[in-house]
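Morning, I've got a small favour to ask if you have a moment. The fold is given in discrete form, as structure tokens running alongside the sequence. I'd be grateful if you could look everything over and explain what you see. No rush at all, and the record is pasted right below.
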Amino acid sequence: MDDTYCETPGQTAPEPPAGTAACPPHAECVLCREPTEYPESTKGATLCPVCAWQEAGRTACGG
């Protein structure tokens, strides 16, 4: 009888899905310094989703 059939393999780290690359570092929000959805190389004022939503509400209501 082959005893290696019932052995459990050693712990291995999961592989990332095929076709995904390591994400570049994210830019900081200019208001709250949280990470944004944009890469660090993005030029201009970057906002996180929360601050972008709040800013859109302020500009929409400020006639």
Remarks:
- The chain has a mean pLDDT of 79.
- The longest strand covers residues 35-39.
- The beta strands are 26-28, 35-39.
